[in-house]
Fold each of these.
Amino acid sequence: MKSVCCFILSLVFGISFLSAQDFASPLTNPFSLSQQGARVSPAFADIDMDGDLDLFTGQENGAFGFYPNNGSAVAPSYGAYQANPFGISSLSGNSTPFLVDLDDDDDFDILAGSDSGLRYFENTGNATNASYGPAVVNPFLIISPIGIVRPYMADIDNDDDMDLFVGASDGNIYFYENTGNSNAPAFAAAIVNPFGLQDVGERSAPALIDLDNDNDLDVLVGNQQPGSLSYFENTGTLEIPAFNYVGTNPFNLESVAQDAKPYFGDLDSDSDHDLLVGNALGDLIYFENISPTAGIDEFNKTNAAIYPNPFTDYTTIEFKNNINRHSSLLVTDSSGKVLLSVNLLSGNDKIVLSKKELGVAQGVFFAFLTSNSKNSFLGKLIVK
């Protein structure tokens, strides 16, 4: 156990000082994706709960697109484009989907932007068989900005419900605090450019993710001209954000030929945030996150896939190699304290963990596979 504790402390030491991201050179329409329409807006979700990220898109003509992931959590491969899947209907123009569970029934609903306000599609199916009802105009009494609107949702104040950020034609970011709860959202009136955010140029498109590994949400915002990505670092806290403008195209990112619409997802299951950016030409530009993470990558890529991660209730650890009868799974906190130890049966290829089993509210934890007195690091578990 001491060796696990020492290894964890070395990881934490590295992670705490390793804040900058590094993205590879861009690839256009990778993973068998194809150009469809113009002003494409990507969004990821595991819509069939098979452990990998499927891709939804919006387009200038108002249609929605869908690419099923026929590969895996480690090596995505997208199937043929499908227009308006699962009963979704086209909007007036410039559709921008965001998939989120807004009624706490464990499936993905859709909040979509358009050139005539926000629309809501409730998932009346279930977590593995999505089916969407008709579009609800101006849902939850939200008054949208004028022009093209691009929504992104995140729990910015750490109160267990999803708040709303909306990019707009005028370049500003509009914030709507969720004053309801996780199954009955209600949104306050819009605040323009809150928490230190700024006008970044026409057709702003925000995405929120932790880009500096300090456990709060930063903001990356795309714009129309020149299709650049503006970075706002969160120098506040989980509960009280404060954004500081750092600059455009950070971490070796590049402009993408007008109308940048960013969306993050871990496409290779290495516990970091890869980036897919839609543009005006209808292309999907992929920036792989190649940041070193204190020795995490070489272990995680060879031993296991962890999904979803981050998670709120349950996560699955899928082992890539055969498990023998002397193997155990350990989960520890940053001090090396063991939170969970599970003996694994020979031949097991996956295990489902719950937040309740770990006995934690939130945070970053570490998973190990122990076999024949040898410890292998599997990856970080991020509990929201």
Note: The first strand starts at residue 27 and ends at 28.
Amino acid sequence: MGSQTDPPPHITGLKHLRVLGSGGYSTVHLYEQQVPRREIAVKVMRGPSSDLFQSEAELMARVSSHPAILSLFGAGVTEDGFAYIVMEYCPPPQLWTVARRKPLSIADALRTIIQISGAVETAHRAGIIHRDIKPANILLTAYRRPVLADFGISSVAGDANQATRGLSVPWAPPEQLIDVANPHPSADVYSLAATCYSLLTGRSPFGAVGQKDDIFQLSRKIISDPVPPLQRPDAPEALKRVLEVAMDKSPMQRYPSALAFGRALQEIESSLNLPPTTIDLLQDSLDGPDDAGDDDDSGTRIAVFSRVTTPTQASPAAADEDDDVEETDEEAPKRSLIVPSLIGAAAIAAAVAGGYLVWSTPGEERPPGSFATIQADQAAPLKETAPGPQGLAGESAEDGTVHFTWSAPAADWAGEYQYRQWRGASPTWETTTDTAAVLPAGQTCIEVVAVRDDRQASDPVHVCAATPAPTP
């Protein structure tokens, strides 16, 4: 099993058709299952069977019934001792190939990421952190529905081998590049947002346009640079703000869950008058035994989300599904791998703002659940915007800089402010807890947004300061 030219393994009941792709850990083959007759993807590990490969299958089994997660059909070991996983086959072209050729529309990108956010939230509630969310790991089924794949480096509690796993740098959060040994759900929130950014632009957020990325320079950008502006004139400001919050350098400043991020995107859909996209979750039954025969469809609506604030922990499994392997379609992206310890640890660690928490481990088995649907009209992270800054005004100083001041939205305000030059060439947002900001000489207009501690943002407030008339 060292290369794609190796003979395919014999698996009873399956007929080999062709190799789909190959990577460092495994080879993925296309087989035809005889009974029932259908095409399936079979991932075969390179080398003898291992606990890590079995762990990947077990992780997938926990959540693969979710409509936005790749279906798992089975697993086993060949006569030659090679472990394999049998999965749903997703025919080309795949999502990342499509988006690299032509970025997705706002509507298509929102619809895709909202559905995947439900898959990620469901995995988190099952105690799994994916740790490798990126465009190439979102496949399209035969019905062109997006599904999350590649649980090969996912995390569950107690795996001592996390630090040796590879990861995909372009979509990895800063803290994952520095310390991979303590994964947290907020890492997946970052990667979800980075994936959304990529679907809208056809490139990774910090990638150089038209150039091959140097993995170490890319890592430094992710850790220290602000999120580059989303160069989409049709993208609303609200979408840009949501992506910036979800990709904050500090894990604790991001949306608190994949569900919260998905709900924010639902509200953007609503503001654009787009058809609503629902979020499917694996929810523990809210009904007692006496309600088992109740056909009232209101039971499919989730009224509370208490489990979102009490996540369970996770730790890594083995190789991967699709992005550990090189796609055979043209323009298929190759996996960018890096071992975080290779980065200059001390210098890079100093660039990260804030820390992150260790996800606590549950002590009991989770009861079986059933899928419930969150309708878009149940979400309200952006519909009722936070109050904005009051009394924004600016005054030019003798040195040419412009000093702006404002008042808090309310006496009991708790939060921060984001500001940037308005109508200028520098769209980068700055963050402050003060009610004042200074723009360099020549920048006379400012845009300020108030962001409450619950991450709910106000509408932007603008003002331009009068500049002194030139002296004759």
Note: DSSP finds nine helices and 18 strands in the chain.
Amino acid sequence: MTPPRAPWTRRPASPAEAADPDLFSRTIQANVGIGVGMVFFGMAMGALFAVAYTVCLGRTGGLRARNLALLVAGGGFLGMYLVPFLKYPANPPAIGHEETIKQRSALYLIMVVCSVALLAGAVYLGKYLQKRYGNWNATLLAGAAFVVAIGIVMLLLPQLGHLSYNKANFGNQATETPLPLKDSKGNIVYPGFPADVLFTFRFYSVAAQLILWTALGLIFAPSPSASSTPRGRTRTPPQEPDPVPA
């Protein structure tokens, strides 16, 4: 039986294999890539906006079609992005662990679905309470119900730092944002992720979504389809005045 080698006589480990080169460079991703991605994302959101507008048209009482287009756009921004953003805000690519990407994607999708579903339920609740409490009070009650319901969902869903992999390897943290490294005396020996970079990324993320949904509402509102008569309502042709006798 061959005795084990001493540590200093063992062969050095083979070097790690080099990572495959990126299909697209960082420059292309930051310029052409993000532009193309925003165009296709805008097309997808525009299709969802058109479907939601068609479903709501004629089912919102006396609300004008142009006002409905603006409200649908505001609801899309609120339900599809802003509310999920409050629970799981956007992060740069440098934040997040590869081992938790599936869990993070599933949690964000659950948050989006719950946000949209509860927002639609709040609209239906407001319409149901309108006859009893009036338009203003019904809107306040439906909004309060939405806030309470979505707050419960946010409390039930875990923080990203509380995922099993993150707790096992990095402790019980709130997020996956890299924190500063400290020595035994509490002195920072290596800084964490820059807070200004994180704020700027999230600010531009919210601004891009706000511009997208505002553009959808403002462009669609003056269109002929938004000026048409809702289903279930017929236009009364203008009556000609009676001829004045000579």
Note: Residues 32 and 38 are 10 Å apart (CA to CA).
Amino acid sequence: MTTRDQQRHAALTALYARIAGVPGDIVELGVASGESIRIWLQLVAADTTHRRTVFGFDTFAGFPSFAPEDGPEAPTIGKRVGGETELRVRPLRADEVNAHGAQLIAGDITKTLPLALSSDMIGPVALVFCDADTYAPTKTALDVLWPRLSPGGLFVFDEYGHLAWPGETLAVDQWVECQPWDVKLERLTGDYAPTACITKPIK
């Protein structure tokens, strides 16, 4: 395991520890090569308190499009329509995740996520890991998943504040501004780690 992998693993493990008493599943938006979802699966498998399902949403074909809010394309970092597929070092295998109770949903997240929720495929959610990078899926995720997030649950953002990916930041900021309560956006630190999260208040 590289230093980068160790840092990533430590960051996600710390986040998982924060939902120890929170019921619900894990939803990851933007699976890519499966680096993070493998970690969630390991943590869920070791959890003796909760039975959780890990849901992973991704086009599995790169970015379908960019909104004006996402800024210009940047091919050198995989930011282009259809991009990032060539960056996947090790594809995620269905048999690798199905054995641990994960479900992968392929397609445009702005369409597949609302559909999954309307079909009651997903129940209460303990943690949302938003690694979709761009404006539209991040906005959709906040709009439709926040009501499903259990009190005390975490909504985590992987690219918040990244200059190359302004769409995710804008979607979060706009959502925060529209809420009738004082949203506490927590900035996270560390290399190769998520950059921000919101904890759903316990009423």
Note: The first strand starts at residue 25 and ends at 29.
